Amino acid sequence: MFDHFVVSVVVCPVLVALAVRWLADRLRPEAAVTVLVISVVSAAAAGLVSLGTFTVKAMAELHPVAVRLGFSDAVVRADTSREPWVSGLSVVLLLAAVAGMIRVWQRHRGENAVAAEFRGLPVDADRVAMIDDVRAEAFAVPGRPGRVVVTTGMRSALDDQQYSALLAHERAHLDARHHHLVLFARLAAAAHPVFRWLTRRIEFLVERAADERAAEQVGDRRVVARAIGVAALRASGSRVGLPMAPSGSDLRRAGVVPRRVASLLAPRYAAGLLALVTVPLAVAAGSLIWTGECVADLGELLYTAGMLH
């Protein structure tokens, strides 16, 4: 069974991460971000199931457990006799992954609690809630229905075209359920450390996807680019939901705003490259299939151990 551990926990996640990292800057974000997130989540899920399978094997290697369940622990241990450490390592990795995912979920619930404060605000016909606040803020608040919250400080900073671009950007977040994509990416990063490398990249792709959708709605990519620049200059740095204006931590990271603006001003990516998005998806699908075989192999191993008891 050791080969299943190597493929599903080590090789496939690394291949998916490398593929997503390479493709992220070469594909149209609005077309690719969902598939890339699905690839990452699928690979992370396959790794989790593999770790869970080896954790069950680790329990089965314990003599008291084997005696109680009526099978030979020696037979179970013999399957990975050359790699006796793999079962124990799987237990540790699984516990770390679960703990990390719990922390991500708790953070998500905390963000939801903050967002809930804005869901009761009155909105206009465009699902916009205007708050009287000199700070320049604008963000999408998911819900049924979702809404866009804008402060008077942000509204006064933008002209009518830029304001339309801002609203189109935030509605793109709501319509595409980008908050779900970000949550899934964070859970995948908690489940497997290699995907932590991609979290910021996926969050950036989500923003880029909303930028592109806004550009389609407004009909002028330069207007959206200018709106991003103005919003960045006026933003206070606090964050709720998925804002068009980046936070202070975004501004301190190299080139978040300039990259978004430059991407809007540059020629669009060629559509022909979109087929490459199937590469990480295929690797992740293969990992899921291989993990299924791992579960089946454990079942056969435990059956054999029971027969030889």
TrEMBL record:
The keyword Membrane applies. One of its GO terms (biological process) is proteolysis. Residues 117-180 form the Peptidase M48 domain. Its cofactor is Zn(2+). InterPro entries: Beta-lactam_resp_regulator (IPR052173), Peptidase_M48 (IPR001915). Binds 1 zinc ion per subunit. It comes from the Bacteria. GO terms for molecular function: metal ion binding; metalloendopeptidase activity. The keyword Metal-binding applies. Keywords: Hydrolase, Membrane, Metal-binding, Metalloprotease, Protease, Transmembrane, Transmembrane helix, Zinc. The chain crosses the membrane at residues 6-24, 31-54, 85-105, 269-290. Signal peptide: none annotated. PANTHER family: POSSIBLE SENSOR-TRANSDUCER PROTEIN BLAR (PTHR34978), SLR0241 PROTEIN (PTHR34978:SF3). Belongs to the peptidase M48 family. This is Peptidase M48-like protein. It comes from Paractinoplanes brasiliensis.
